[in-house]
Amino acid sequence: xxxFYQSKFDYFRRVSFLSAMLTGLxxxxxxxxxxxxxxxxxxxxLVPRCSVILPLxxxxxxxxxxxxxxxxxFLYYLIAHASMWATIWAIWFLPNKDFARxxxxxxxxxxLAIGLGMxxxxxxxxxxxxxxxxxxxxxWNHYEHFDxxxxxxxxxxxxxxxxxxxLENSYxxxxxxxxxxxxxxxxxNLTEAYNRNKINxxxxxxxxxxxxxxxxxxxxxxxxxxxxxxxxxxTYGHDAGDKILVFLTEQIxxxxxxxxxxxxxxxxxxxxxxxGAETEVGLKIAEHIRHSVETTENExxxxxxxxxxxxxxxxxxxxxxxxxxxxxxxxxxxGRNLVVHYDDISxxxxxxxPKSE
Length: 357
Description:
By secondary structure, the chain is α+β, with helices and mostly antiparallel strands. It has helices at 2-29, 31-38, 43-50, 53-62, 69-91, 100-114, 120-141, 146-185, 198-202, 229-236, 238-255, 279-295, 317-333, 347-350; strands spanning 219-226, 261-266, 269-275, 305-312, 339-341.
């Protein structure tokens, strides 16, 4: 729900911000109606009407720094309530307070516009303060038709809450569809591991292509490949090969943590990013995966895997993947069913690595 509310806030943020600004600015223009009621320049209400400028300046200064919807709730609704109290202050000086009814009704719709980007659960208590404001201000403004004000305001308040619930549920549908599309775009259909598009989300946008994930300082890269996978497809068929790929994915997921990332790199190759792991831990996890695949029944045929291991030390992520791939190539050339760390390969062995790779 927190992610949903943040997404809703991000989507409607511009509308809520402009609505808050417009609410404050229009509050100042009601000075014109004050002059009409007085039949002269209403100097008495000039300061009350313009008092909303201060919270407007606060909004302009702080809004670019707002990232979380909870702070946005406080800041945007502050303008609406400031406008409300500026109106109440101005009404104190008006010789005819009957027009307050219309002003208070209009205020409800300001809350509706501002509240588009806010959780309804937050909006209800904050919006209900409008009614409380009317009740409190009546103790000194003594509205002639106070009962009519309340009887008109309550249905409008209820109606707006219903509208906001409908809009929030509509956005929930859009949010879920968007999440599903995002998941599909980065997920391999067969294994439900990430596909290579996931990399675009976790690397920086500049040319350095550094990993942009928490604790990326300590990341161990595993390059995993099924030994002689072509024989599986040739002997048992591609459907059986698909079962093996799903089986391998399940075994890897059992051995890694929720914070780690499993990516189907292509064909029968998988890359695992062990986030926040030291090299020793990465080697143990790689060996655990290798042993689990070798000893677990998969309902097709016995299989083994080879694993190349490298440590990401900052910089371009491709270098760490390339090192893991070189270690994997070494494992393939030295008997398969092995876990090989890149740092354990001699310079002479690296000379045999295909240049095209």
